[in-house]
Amino acid sequence: MLSVIIPTEGVEQPAVATLAALVPGAAAGVIREVLLVDRVGNGVIERVADVAGCSFLRFDGTRAAALAAGARAARSPWLMFLHPGAVLDNGWIEETTQFIQNVSSSDRPRAGVFRYARSPYADTRLRDGLKFVARMIAGPSAEQGLLIARDHMSGLAATGRIPDVPRPGCCASSAAPRAPSCAAGSWSSPS
């Protein structure tokens, strides 16, 4: 049902935290595969992928190009892009499944983004308050995860709303979607 694409920079700990949060989704059959796309090539992420049973892709290039390469390698009709270090809330499986079912049964293609949630263990500072206000004004940002149907992403690429799609049925993104390093919850859907 779902391929998860995580672009990494050769650092183990944030990737492992995200993978641990995805285990219930794999056990429930929501996640078909996880692809770790590493741009550093120091061997750390390759070992993590091997131990965790994920696919590994070594990629030289920009972050956006790495995401596109991961999307090309993905086998599922739905793609989820997450930043390493993202830890999803407990209800993410049900919400993701419901979102996919609702979009699939409607005639209106949509993408979902994570609603940002601060970790309850984080030390709140003025800077965090300013970031919250900025998120409310600007809307979804590259710091949030993305859930999108492969066909919808390809359609956006065909209209030029997303740069070059290397081959039909694949996707590319210049706005490298990233999820916050704290919990993520409900899906919202930009038009």
Present the secondary structure layout:
Elements: E1 2-8, H1 12-27, E2 31-38, H2 44-52, E3 55-58, H3 63-73, E4 78-81, E5 87-88, H4 92-105, E6 111-116, H5 126-138, E7 146-149, H6 150-158, E8 183-188
Parallel strand pairs: 1-2, 1-4, 2-3, 5-8
Antiparallel strand pairs: 4-7, 6-7, 6-8
User: In the CATH scheme, what's the topology name?
Assistant: Spore Coat Polysaccharide Biosynthesis Protein SpsA, Chain A
* Lateral strand order in the biggest sheet: 3-2-1-4-7-6-8-5
Strand residue content: 15-25%
Q: What is the CATH superfamily?
A: Spore Coat Polysaccharide Biosynthesis Protein SpsA, Chain A
> What's the helical proportion of residues?
25-40%
Question: What's the SSE pattern?
Answer: EHEHEHEEHEHEHE
Radius of gyration: 16 Å
DSSP helical segment count: 6
Instruction: Give the beta-strand count.
Output: 8
The main sheet comes to: 8 strands, mixed
At CATH's second level, what is the architecture? Alpha-Beta Complex
Report on the architecture of this protein:
The chain is an alpha/beta fold and 191 residues long. The protein has one domain: Spore Coat Polysaccharide Biosynthesis Protein SpsA, Chain A. It is 38% helix and 21% strand. The protein has helices spanning 12-27, 44-52, 63-73, 92-105, 126-138, 150-158, and strands at residues 2-8, 31-38, 55-58, 78-81, 87-88, 111-116, 146-149, 183-188. It has an 8-stranded mixed sheet, sandwiched between helices. Helix 1 (12-27) links the parallel strand 1 (2-8) and strand 2 (31-38). Helix 1 (12-27) packs parallel to helix 2 (44-52). The longest helix is centred in the N-terminal third of the chain and has 16 residues, at 12-27. The chain is globular and about 45 Å long.
